Each structure stands twice: as C-alpha cells, then as structure tokens.
C-alpha cells in the first residue's frame, strides 16, 4: 500500500541530490583555483604569450605572459576596448618580468607577477605592482586555448577561397548555422603579391580559418580588414612554429609559434613567443566559439546527474515489478 508513496519520496530525494551536484562539485574545487574558459580569455584579454614576450610597441588590452623581456619602454593597457569584459586580472600579468625599463601601464591597469619582477613601471591612473594578485599558472590559459585550437582544426570546411588573379585572394564566406570554416595552407595564404579580401563576410557570425604550416606575410601582400573581421574571425595556426604578419585583422591562435608583427594585429593573440614591432590592438571576440568542450566541473556534474537519473529509472522498474 505504501510503495507508491515510498517510490515518490525516493525520486524526490534523488532528484534533489542531482540538483545539488553542481554545489558539491563547486565546493570541491580548491579556493583560488578559478577556471577560465577559452571564451572568457578571448573576451577579457588582448594577448596570451606562454613563454617570452618582447615588443617595441604598445599593447592596448590585458596581457598574460610567461616572461616579459623588453629592451624598450612600451605602454601597456593603453586603450582597453570597452567591449572587453571586466576581469579579476591586471593590465599586465606575468610569471616573471625580466626587463621592462620605464614601461607605462595606463588606465589603472596594474601589474601582477608570480615569481619575480625586475621591471620599472610608471602607473598612470592608479593600480599597483603586486605579487600573486591574482595567483595563476600559465596552464590556466594554455590548456583551454590549446583545446580550442584542436577543436577548431577538427571542424569540417564549408567555405572556399578563390584566386581570380595572381594578385587577389578572396575568402568566399558560405556559412552553415552562422559558422564559416576554411582550410588553407600557409603557402597558399602567402602566395604572390596578394590582396586579401572577404566576400559576403557578414553572412556569418563566426569565421574560422584553419591554416596548415608556417606563414610569413610578405612585403607584397595587403590585407584591408575592418572591425567586423577583428571581432568575428579566428586564424587558427594549430601546427605552426613561425607566424609573421604585417597589418592583420582577427584573432590569431598560434600556441606553438613565435609570432612577429611589423604593424598592428587587430584582435586577440595567442602565441608561444612574441617579438613585436607593431602594436596589439584590443578587439575582444564577439561571436560564439564553435566546438566548445565542457569544463571538467561540467563533466563531473553531468556524470553525477546521469548516474542519479539512471538509478531513478532502475529503482522505478524494481518497484513496478515488486
């Protein structure tokens, strides 16, 4: 007589445990071990350089670097984009600061170092030079960004490029579900004295260009971009070890490469090393990242939820046959 009531109570109890799973998982994450996603990185930062960072030019947005080794005086957090999301991180964040003579940090950006700092900073608009504020490991950034590069490289191409003449390279945007994906080699991208343009660019929310191999934008190439490309294009140099650009538009993902520029990169930069002679302009990515992978805590919550639902079904079948 009481079996239906007992089954209902069991279901409610287990449902509550499933709903409570996120709280349990969140409580099990150590304090200070904040998880930052690839989407948040592209939304909050101008550049992440996992190893050596050196530039003679300025950086408009937030920077994360393994080691800042500047022989020049540069200005950091010079012109943060108002579209960039607020962040717990400073304008300049580095594991070590080997050299930065008379560098400037504008707009109250502040400087955060993890192990040591030999830099000299002029703080304009407030901020401070502090250690472990916040504390972070480089893997907090490289792990999600490397995962993003792998995911993007696995996308199926749905758009093509054309070269109607030796001096023209046109990316013909034909998106599926608002995402356009191109596959091109570094050699094809660097061929000839090309003018790089996009056709029907605004028909896609996200444009992914997977580039195979190294790339060197020669002196004859010309890329006339715009703000839309800055905020909606990702150049994914997944297996490159060297990328050299002049004036460039869109996010550059090259986690295993040494990247250099002679004119501004207009968008987010991810590199192993950066040797800059051009500015880094802050344009946060404004579209949806395709192929997102759930964070570890999300996988754990899903596993607990599925286990709970499976138990509910098993228990229900046993009660029904009792």
Structure description:
This protein is α/β, with parallel strands linked by helices. The chain is built from six helices and 22 strands. The strands form four sheets. Strands 1, 2, 4, 6, 8, 11, 13, 14, 16, 17, 19 and 21 form a twelve-stranded parallel sheet that branches. Helix 1 packs antiparallel against helix 6 (296-321). The radius of gyration is 24 Å and the shape is globular. Residues 1-33 and 293-320 have low confidence and may be disordered.
Task: Report a brief summary of the structure.
This protein has helices at 3-28, 38-44, 139-153, 186-189, 227-232, 296-321; strands at 47-55, 63-69, 75-76, 92-99, 103-105, 111-117, 121-123, 129-131, 160-165, 168-172, 179-185, 195-199, 206-212, 215-216, 222-223, 233-236, 242-245, 248-249, 251-261, 265-266, 269-276, 280-281. The protein is an alpha/beta fold and 322 residues long. α1 runs antiparallel to α6.
Tally the helices: what do you get? Answer: 6
What structural class do the secondary elements suggest? alpha/beta
What would you report as the Rg, rounded to the nearest angstrom?
A: 24 Å
What's the β-strand tally? 22
Strand content: 25-35%
User: SSE string, helix = H, strand = E?
Assistant: HHEEEEEEEEHEEEHEEEEHEEEEEEEH
Question: Averaging pLDDT over every residue, what do you get?
Answer: 86
Shape: globular
Range of helix content: 25-40%
Largest beta-sheet characterization? 12 strands, parallel
Question: Cα distance, first to last residue?
Answer: 12 Å
* Uncertain ranges: 1-33, 293-320
């Amino acid at each position: 007589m009481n079996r239906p009531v007992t089954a209902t109570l069991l279901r409610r109890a287990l449902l509550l445990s499933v709903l409570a799973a996120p709280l349990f998982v969140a409580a099990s994450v150590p304090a200070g071990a904040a998880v930052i996603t690839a989407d948040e990185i592209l939304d909050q930062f101008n550049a992440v350089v996992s190893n050596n960072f050196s530039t003679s030019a300025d950086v408009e947005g937030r920077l994360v670097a393994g080691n800042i080794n500047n022989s020049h005086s540069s200005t950091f957090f010079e012109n943060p984009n108002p579209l960039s999301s607020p962040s717990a991180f400073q304008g300049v964040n580095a594991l070590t600061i080997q050299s930065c003579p008379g560098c400037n940090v504008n707009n109250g950006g502040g400087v955060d170092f993890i192990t040591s700092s030999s830099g000299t900073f002029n703080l304009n608009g407030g901020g401070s030079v502090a250690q472990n504020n916040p504390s972070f490991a480089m893997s907090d950034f490289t792990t999600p960004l490397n995962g993003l590069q792998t995911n993007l490289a696995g996308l199926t191409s749905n758009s093509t490029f054309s070269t109607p003449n030796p001096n023209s390279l046109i990316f013909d945007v034909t998106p599926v579900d608002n995402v356009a994906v191109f596959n091109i080699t570094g050699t094809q991208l660097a061929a000839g004295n090309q003018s790089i343009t996009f056709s029907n660019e605004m028909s896609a929310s996200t444009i992914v260009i997977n580039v195979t191999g190294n790339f060197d934008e020669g002196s004859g190439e010309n890329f006339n971009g715009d703000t839309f490309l800055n905020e909606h294009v990702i150049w994914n140099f997944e297996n490159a070890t060297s990328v050299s650009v002049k004036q460039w538009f869109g996010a550059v993902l090259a986690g295993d490469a040494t990247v250099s520029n002679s004119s501004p990169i207009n968008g987010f930069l991810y590199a192993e090393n950066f040797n800059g002679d051009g500015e880094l302009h802050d344009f946060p990515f404004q579209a949806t990242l395709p192929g997102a992978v759930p964070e570890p805590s999300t996988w754990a919550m899903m596993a607990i939820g599925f286990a709970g639902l499976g138990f509910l079904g098993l228990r229900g079948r046993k009660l029904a046959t009792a």
